[in-house]
Amino acid sequence: VFIHYFSDVQQDHISANKISLVASRYCKNIIYYKSNRYNSPIPFNPNIYVDITDYYEKKSNALEQYSSEHNRFSQLFKQTLLQNEVDGYSSLPTEQGSYAEAFVAYKIRI
Questions:
Q1: CB 21 within 8 Å of CB 3
Q2: What's the rounded mean pLDDT across residues 12-16?
Q3: pTM
Q4: Which residues, 6+ apart, have CB-to-CB distance to 77 below 8 Å?
Q5: What is the CA radius of gyration of the chain?
Q6: Would you say 49 and 87 are in contact if contact means Cβ atoms under 8 Å apart?
Q7: What is the DSSP letter of 40?
Q8: Is the CA virtual torsion 47, 52, 56, 59 positive or negative?
Q9: 46-89 residue pLDDT tens
Q10: The dihedral of CA 67, 57, 7, 5: what is its sign?
C-alpha cells in the first residue's frame, strides 16, 4: 500500500495518512511516498528506490497534462523530475542518465 508521508505541510495529506494507516493495518507492505516538494517538518529520508528510467518520459508527459492546475510558478514539476534524476544518480550510481522514484518503508514483510 502506498501512503502519503506522515510529515507533510498539507493537512489533508496528514489526514489521508492516518486514515490509510488504519485501513491498511493488516497489509504486509506499507510504503510512504512524498507527494509534493515542500519541506516537511520531519525530513523525507528514502530507503527504497525504484528505477523508473524506462518510464521517465511517460511520467514527464503525464505531469505536463496537469501543468495548468498544479505547476505553480512553472517549477513544481521540474523540481519533481530533477529529484528523480538525483535519486537515480544516488541509487544507481553506475548507470549515468538513470532516474529513480524514492520511498520510505513503513512496514515490509518478506
A1: yes
A2: 94
A3: 0.84
A4: 60, 63, 64, 66, 67, 70, 71
A5: 15
A6: yes
A7: P
A8: negative
A9: 999 999 999 999 999 998 887 776 656 667 688 888 888 889 88
A10: positive
d(CA 25, CA 38): 27
DSSP label of 93: T
Buried-state track 81-109, b at ≥16 Cβ within 10 A, e below 16: eebbeebbeebbeeeeebbbbbbbebeee
The count of other CB atoms within 10 Å of the CB of residue 8 is 22
CA distance 23 to 13: 15
Sheet strands (E) in 27-99: 30-33, 48-51
Question: Cell numbers of 90, please?
Answer: 544516488
- Say which residue the cell 516538494 belongs to: 37
> What cell was used for 103?
520511498
Distance CA 33, CA 68 (A): 23
